[in-house]
Amino acid sequence: MHLPPFDQYPILTDNIIILRPPRISDIPDIMEICFYDGKPAETQEEAKEMLQKINLDYENGNCVHWIISDFILHQTIGTCGFYRGFQNETGEIGYVLLPEFRGYGWMTHAVQLAIRFGFNDMGLKRIIAYTDQENVKSQKVLERIGFTLSGKKKDGNLEYELFKHP
Question: Which domains are seen in the chain, by residue range?
Answer without folding.
Answer: 12-127 (3.40.630.30)
